[in-house]
């Protein structure tokens, strides 16, 4: 993504088989798919969906088992080694039937599983809303959130995935962001970076780093950057943090995209073509797909190689078509995925100069189905293993995509709003 060239946003039209539009939901990406859980429209929403960007296809997942969460809003969801971890989304009370605040989804089995959270831990975080959650190494870190009538929290908790044990990592002091909610946080090279949110009733624009090695907070001073914000969302893209939307108040959402460079400690507002500007959004979700967004358990100080920076074409993916079995043989439909050609800078300039928008060319992903059938001997397990391997392969070869899903203002009785921007570096 260039700092000088304007970005091209594209709205992805959704079919009827898709979640309704919503806000205060949670989403994350894993293995080439986007998962969306809960939130609100005119009331609470308790459904759970998986979205394939390549196929442009939504699949509703089961959320009715005794291990699944109930209706949640302002909760968090992170991915780690084949599992999705959902935390918070409601407030504990004397009338609450919720036994805990943590739920776990097994991606391979596509079902909710009972979490092995240590009940014997002397301390565990209470339920909350509007907190942030990031993953660094083998630990999920949760900061802040609105807890109960006492208001927002300034606790920093860690859940170690290996031991399933919680630990309270920071205590009230002057060298921390203080109690807040509706902020955003990302993880980058062993640190958590936190921006803005509500502190009491006042929106903030302060920027903090928590170092997991030294377990200390540092307030980062920058000469420019986003204004006071709440209800915004952020992701890490290579050596930068991308922050989108939010508002200085609940009723005035924005559509600005900001980029913070970790190496230079500077903010830059990313311009977009007038004809492709995304809508104002607050309490939405942002997520990234592609090699530059792929999280790693361990961070590296080495820069991406030239080979890593190249956009590779999608490879062929085999997936089961209508299953007509011939003994131990089955038909396989070959699907080839490709990305439309991007416009050159000159074409973009000409287009923006005439006031027309290249809606049919830009950054859409297309799916080309070839009527090619092949027969081979295969078992159900082999097909499943191959499908998982190909999903991982597709994830590696996706172009870098920033997705903005849902948020206020929202459209009642309409499919969820999904906007896409393809990211490239010069």
UniProtKB/TrEMBL annotation:
InterPro entries: Kelch-typ_b-propeller, Kelch_1, LZTR1/Attractin
Record keywords: Kelch repeat, Repeat
A Pfam family matched in the record: Kelch_KLHDC2_KLHL20_DRC7
Signal sequence region: none
GO annotation, cellular component aspect: Golgi apparatus
Alphabetical list of SUPFAM superfamilies matching this protein: Kelch motif
PANTHER family named in the record: LEUCINE-ZIPPER-LIKE TRANSCRIPTIONAL REGULATOR 1
Protein's recorded name: Tip elongation aberrant protein 1
Gene: klhdc3l
């Amino acid at each position: 993504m260039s700092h000088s060239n304007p970005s091209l946003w594209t709205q992805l039209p959704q079919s009827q088989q898709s979640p309704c539009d919503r806000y205060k939901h949670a989403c994350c990406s894993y293995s080439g798919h986007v998962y969306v859980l809960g939130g609100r429209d005119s009331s609470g929403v308790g459904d759970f969906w998986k979205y394939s960007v390549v196929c442009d296809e939504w699949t509703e997942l089961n959320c009715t088992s005794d291990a699944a969460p109930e209706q949640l809003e302002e909760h968090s969801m992170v991915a780690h080694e084949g599992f999705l971890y959902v935390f918070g989304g409601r407030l504990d009370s004397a009338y609450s039937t919720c036994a805990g605040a943590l739920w776990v989804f097994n991606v391979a089995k596509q079902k909710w599983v009972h979490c092995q959270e240590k009940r014997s831990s002397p301390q565990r975080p209470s339920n909350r809303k509007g907190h942030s959650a990031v993953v660094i190494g083998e630990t999920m870190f949760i900061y802040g959130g609105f807890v109960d009538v006492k208001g927002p929290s300034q606790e920093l908790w860690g859940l170690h995935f290996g031991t399933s044990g919680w630990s309270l990592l920071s205590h009230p002091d002057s060298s921390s962001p203080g109690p807040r909610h509706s902020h955003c946080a990302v993880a980058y090279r062993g640190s958590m970076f936190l921006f803005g949110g509500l502190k009491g009733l006042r929106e903030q624009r302060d920027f903090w780093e928590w170092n997991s090695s030294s377990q200390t907070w540092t307030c980062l001073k920058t000469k420019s950057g986003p204004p006071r914000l709440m209800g915004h969302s952020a992701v890490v893209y290579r050596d930068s943090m991308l922050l989108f939307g939010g508002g200085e108040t609940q009723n005035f959402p924005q559509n600005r995209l900001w980029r913070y460079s970790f190496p230079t400690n500077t903010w830059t507002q990313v311009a977009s073509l007038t004809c492709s500007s995304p809508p104002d959004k607050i309490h939405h979700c942002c997520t990234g797909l592609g090699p530059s967004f792929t999280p790693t358990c361990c961070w590296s100080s080495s820069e991406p190689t030239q080979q890593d920076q190249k956009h590779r074409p999608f490879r062929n993916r085999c997936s089961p078509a209508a299953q007509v079995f011939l003994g131990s043989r089955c038909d396989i439909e070959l699907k080839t995925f490709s990305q439309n050609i991007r416009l050159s800078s000159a074409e973009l300039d000409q287009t923006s100069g005439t006031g027309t928008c290249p809606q049919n060319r830009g950054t859409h992903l297309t799916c080309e189905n070839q009527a090619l059938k092949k027969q081979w001997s295969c078992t159900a397990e082999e097909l499943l293993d191959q499908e998982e391997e190909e999903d991982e392969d597709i994830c590696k070869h996706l172009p870098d995509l920033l997705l903005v899903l849902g948020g206020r203002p929202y459209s009642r009785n309409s499919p969820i709003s999904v906007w896409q921007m393809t990211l490239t570096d010069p």
